[in-house]
C-alpha cells in the first residue's frame, strides 16, 4: 500500500537526488533497490557493533587511507548487519578502491558508489535525513489510519472484515486461526497448504490463536510488517474481549445453575428467559446427571482433593465448551451436577446419553483417571425448569443408594432404586427390622462363620427373578452349586425360597439390609 508521493528511499532514488549528482556505482548493482532507513558518516576505522540494518555509510576514506584493505572488512560487517550501501570520495584521500572490496561489494549486493569531490557531506546528510524523516512520517500516518480501522472493526466485532482488510494491505490471503488451529475467518481464496507465515496472537503468556498469511514479508516490506504487527495487537484485544465475555458468561451460567438446583426460584417464565439468555438449550424435557469421583488408591486426603479438583475442571471444560448447549455443568460439594435437556424422557435414552457423556469425559484422560473411578446418578425427566431440583435430588439419591445396592453399576437411574428409596423413608420401622433379623441376618452370620457366599447367592437369585441359570453365570459357578446354596439357605431360615410370598418377603428384607449403610440425612 505505497503512495507515489512518498516512495521508499532506495539506493537508486538516493543517487537521483541533486546533492548526489555525478555519483557513480562502481560495484554491487544488484542491491540498487535496497531501502535506506539510516545514514552514518564514517571517519573511524572500525564500526563493529554500531552498524544498523538498511544503513547508508558515506566516507572520505580518511580513516582507512593507510590501509584501504579495511574497506573489505567493513563490507563484511555491513553484509552481516544488512546495511544498504556505501559511498566513498575516492579521489580525495583514496585514489583507488581495492579489487577485493569491489569483489565483495558485488558478491554481497551492497552498492559501492563514488562521490564527486565537490559534493558537500553536510548537504548530502541533510537531504538524506529529510527524505528518511518524510518517509517515516508518511508511513506513521498511514499506519495510524490502518490501526484506527483495525481498532474500529475489532470494537464493532467485525472480525471477518478485519481479515479482508489485512489481506488487502498485505496483498495476500489471510486467515485467523483459533487456539486449536481451526480456521475462524479467512479471505475468500485462502488455502491452508499455501501458508508461509504464522504469527501468534498472545494474551499474557497464553497463545489464543494465530494469523496465517500466504506471503513471506521481506525486510523492505516495512509498511506491511507494521500492519501485521498492528493486526496481531488488535486481534489480541479481540481475543481478550472474547475471553472476558466468556468468563463472565460462565460465571453467570454457574450462578444460574446453582440457583436452579437449589430450588430458590419458582417462576418458570423467568427461569426459561434467563436460560435462553445464557445459551442454555430449552427443549421438551430436563433431567439431572450427577458425576462423582471416588478414589481407588487410598492416597492422602489433600492429594485426593487436589486430583479431584483438577479432574472436575477438565470435565467442566468439556461439558461447558462453546456450542454445547444441551448440557451445562457445575461443581457443588465435590460432585459435578449436569443439567441435560432432551426431546426424550425414556429411561433407556437417558442412560445412553449418560454413557456417551462418560465416554466423552474419559477420552484422552487415561493418566488423570488411572487412580479414580466415576459413578453417575440420573434423575427422572421433567417438563419444567422449576422441577429440576426434584430431578437433582433423585440423581443424588440414585448415587447414594446405588453405591450400596448396585455396587457394580457405574451408572444408576433413580427408577432402578425406587423401592429402596421408599424403604429408606421407612427406615427403622419395627416390621422392616424384624424382616431383616429373621430372613437376612442368620445367613450373614453363617457366611462369616463358614466363609460361604449365601447372601450374594440369595441376592442374585432374587434379582434374577428366580432364574438359577442366570445366577450361575453371574457368580461364575455351576448351576448345581446354586441349587445347593439355595437349599442350604432354606434349611437355615426354615423356608421354601421358591414360594412366591416367601420370595417377596426375602426381596424386601434384602433391599432393606442393603440400604443400611446409606446416610439418610445426606440425601434428604
From TrEMBL:
Which InterPro entries does the protein's record reference?
Answer: CdaR-like_regulators, CdaR_GGDEF, PucR_C-HTH_dom, PucR_C-HTH_sf, PucR_dom
Identification of the protein by name: Transcriptional regulator
Print the keywords alphabetically.
Coiled coil
Is the keyword RNA-binding assigned to this protein? no
Keyword Transmembrane helix assigned to the entry: answer is no
Where does the record place the CdaR GGDEF-like domain? 267-401
Residue ranges occupied by any Purine catabolism PurC-like domain in the UniProt entry: 14-132
Q: Where is the PucR C-terminal helix-turn-helix domain?
A: 454-512
Q: Kindly list any coiled-coil regions of this protein.
A: 340-367
According to its UniProt record, what is one Pfam family this protein matches? Answer: GGDEF_2
Q: Which family does it belong to?
A: Belongs to the CdaR family.
Amino acid at each position: 500500500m505505497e503512495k507515489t508521493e512518498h516512495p521508499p528511499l532506495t539506493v537508486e532514488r538516493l543517487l537521483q537526488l541533486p546533492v548526489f549528482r555525478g555519483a557513480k556505482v562502481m560495484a554491487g548493482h544488484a542491491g540498487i533497490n535496497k531501502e535506506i532507513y539510516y545514514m552514518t558518516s564514517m571517519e573511524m576505522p572500525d564500526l563493529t557493533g554500531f552498524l544498523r540494518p538498511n544503513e547508508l555509510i558515506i566516507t572520505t576514506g580518511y580513516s582507512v587511507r593507510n590501509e584501504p584493505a579495511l574497506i573489505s572488512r567493513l563490507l563484511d560487517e555491513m553484509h552481516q548487519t544488512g546495511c544498504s550501501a556505501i559511498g566513498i570520495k575516492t579521489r580525495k584521500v583514496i585514489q583507488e578502491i581495492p579489487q577485493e572490496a569491489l569483489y565483495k561489494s558485488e558478491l554481497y549486493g551492497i552498492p559501492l558508489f563514488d562521490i564527486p569531490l565537490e559534493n558537500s557531506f553536510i548537504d548530502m546528510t541533510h537531504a538524506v535525513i529529510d527524505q528518511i524523516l518524510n518517509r517515516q512520517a508518511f508511513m506513521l500516518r498511514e499506519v495510524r489510519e490502518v490501526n484506527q480501522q483495525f481498532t474500529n472493526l475489532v470494537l464493532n466485532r467485525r472480525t471477518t472484515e478485519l481479515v479482508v482488510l489485512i489481506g488487502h494491505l498485505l496483498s495476500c490471503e489471510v486467515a485467523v486461526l483459533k487456539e486449536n488451529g481451526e480456521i475462524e475467518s479467512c479471505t475468500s481464496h485462502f488455502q491452508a497448504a499455501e501458508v508461509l507465515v504464522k504469527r501468534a496472537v498472545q494474551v499474557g503468556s497464553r497463545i489464543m490463536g494465530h494469523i496465517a498469511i500466504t506471503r513471506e514479508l521481506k525486510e523492505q516490506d516495512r509498511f506491511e510488517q507494521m500492519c501485521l504487527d498492528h493486526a496481531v495487537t488488535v486481534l489480541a484485544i479481540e481475543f481478550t474481549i472474547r475471553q472476558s465475555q466468556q468468563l463472565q458468561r460462565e460465571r453467570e451460567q454457574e450462578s444460574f445453575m446453582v440457583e436452579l438446583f437449589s430450588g430458590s426460584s419458582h417462576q418458570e417464565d423467568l427461569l426459561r428467559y434467563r436460560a435462553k439468555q445464557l445459551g442454555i438449550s430449552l427443549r421438551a424435557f430436563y433431567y439431572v446427571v450427577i458425576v462423582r469421583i471416588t478414589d481407588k488408591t487410598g492416597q492422602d486426603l489433600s492429594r485426593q482433593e487436589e486430583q479431584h479438583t483438577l479432574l472436575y475442571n477438565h470435565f467442566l471444560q468439556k461439558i461447558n465448551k462453546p456450542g454445547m448447549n444441551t448440557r451445562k455443568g457445575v461443581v457443588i460439594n465435590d460432585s459435578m451436577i449436569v443439567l441435560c435437556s432432551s426431546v426424550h424422557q425414556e429411561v433407556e435414552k437417558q442412560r445412553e446419553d449418560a454413557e456417551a457423556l462418560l465416554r466423552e469425559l474419559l477420552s484422552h484422560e487415561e493418566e488423570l483417571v488411572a487412580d479414580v473411578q466415576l459413578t453417575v446418578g440420573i434423575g427422572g425427566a421433567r417438563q419444567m425448569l422449576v422441577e429440576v431440583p426434584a430431578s437433582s435430588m433423585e440423581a443424588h439419591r440414585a448415587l447414594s443408594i446405588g453405591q450400596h445396592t448396585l455396587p457394580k453399576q457405574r451408572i444408576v437411574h433413580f427408577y432402578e432404586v425406587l423401592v429402596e428409596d421408599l424403604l429408606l423413608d421407612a427406615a427403622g420401622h419395627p416390621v422392616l427390622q424384624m424382616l431383616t433379623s429373621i430372613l437376612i441376618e442368620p445367613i450373614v452370620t453363617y457366611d462369616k462363620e463358614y466363609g460361604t457366599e449365601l447372601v450374594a447367592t440369595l441376592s442374585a437369585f432374587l434379582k434374577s427373578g428366580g432364574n438359577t441359570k442366570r445366577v450361575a453365570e453371574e457368580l461364575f459357578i455351576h448351576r448345581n452349586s446354586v441349587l445347593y446354596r439355595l437349599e442350604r439357605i432354606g434349611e437355615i431360615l426354615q423356608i421354601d425360597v421358591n414360594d412366591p410370598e416367601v420370595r417377596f418377603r426375602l426381596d424386601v428384607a434384602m433391599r432393606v439390609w442393603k440400604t443400611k449403610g446409606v446416610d439418610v440425612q445426606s440425601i434428604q
